[in-house]
């Protein structure tokens, strides 16, 4: 749909390959960090593999890709915007989500630090924090009607988010319409966090 976009397929946990591929792909003005994994396990059963993979993808990849892109923006002297896709789980404990909640909380704080340090370079950094989104990953983790009903009952709008709900929020944060917004988290949760 967008002929000017060239996808790069790589393992973001491989910092050398990521540096080479993303570094050669610029220049950039906008960045959306959306890669994530949700390896759900009860706290007492969290495995080292799940922890390491989640930290690599949900936190480390965002830090690294943002470094590469922000350095290019600064070198070119252009203003920019970065949006990191976080989650309502960064602010509310969820059963079997010990690692996921923790990595998303870390992502929220990383985004605030990025906003503070990159602001003088006219680079804005924000997060969107959606509820469950009906992506493939969302369907896998929330396909059990008993599990999903308990969550939906806590959402005042009574439904999970669709992809467009999140995309529209990201587009707002990337646009000049949010020119004075940085270091913020935009909840796309149907009111989950107020219930």
UniProtKB/TrEMBL annotation:
PANTHER family: D-ERYTHRULOSE REDUCTASE, D-ERYTHRULOSE REDUCTASE-RELATED. It comes from the Eukaryota. Belongs to the short-chain dehydrogenases/reductases (SDR) family. The keyword Secreted does not apply. This is DER reductase. One of its GO terms (molecular function) is L-xylulose reductase (NADPH) activity. GO terms for biological process: glucose metabolic process; xylulose metabolic process. Keywords: NADP, Oxidoreductase. It comes from Sula dactylatra (Masked booby). The keyword NADP applies. Homotetramer.
């Amino acid at each position: 749909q967008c002929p000017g976009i060239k996808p790069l397929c790589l393992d973001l946990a491989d910092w050398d390959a990521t540096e080479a591929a993303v570094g050669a792909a610029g220049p950039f003005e906008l960045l959306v960090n959306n890669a994530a994994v949700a390896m759900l396990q009860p706290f007492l059963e969290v495995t080292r593999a799940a922890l390491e993979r989640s930290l690599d993808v949900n936190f480390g990849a965002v830090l690294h890709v943002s470094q590469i892109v922000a350095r290019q923006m600064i070198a070119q002297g252009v203003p920019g915007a970065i949006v990191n896709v976080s989650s309502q789980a960064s602010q509310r404990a969820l059963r079997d989500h010990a690692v996921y909640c923790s990595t998303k909380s870390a992502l929220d704080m990383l985004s605030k630090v990025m906003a503070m340090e990159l602001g003088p370079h006219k680079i804005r950094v924000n997060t969107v924090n959606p509820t469950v989104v009906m992506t493939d990953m969302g369907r896998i983790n929330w396909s059990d009607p008993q599990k999903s009903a308990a969550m939906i009952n806590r959402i005042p709008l009574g439904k999970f988010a669709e992809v467009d709900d999140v995309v529209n929020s990201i587009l707002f944060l990337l646009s000049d319409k949010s020119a004075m917004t940085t270091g913020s988290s935009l909840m796309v949760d149907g009111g989950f966090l107020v219930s």
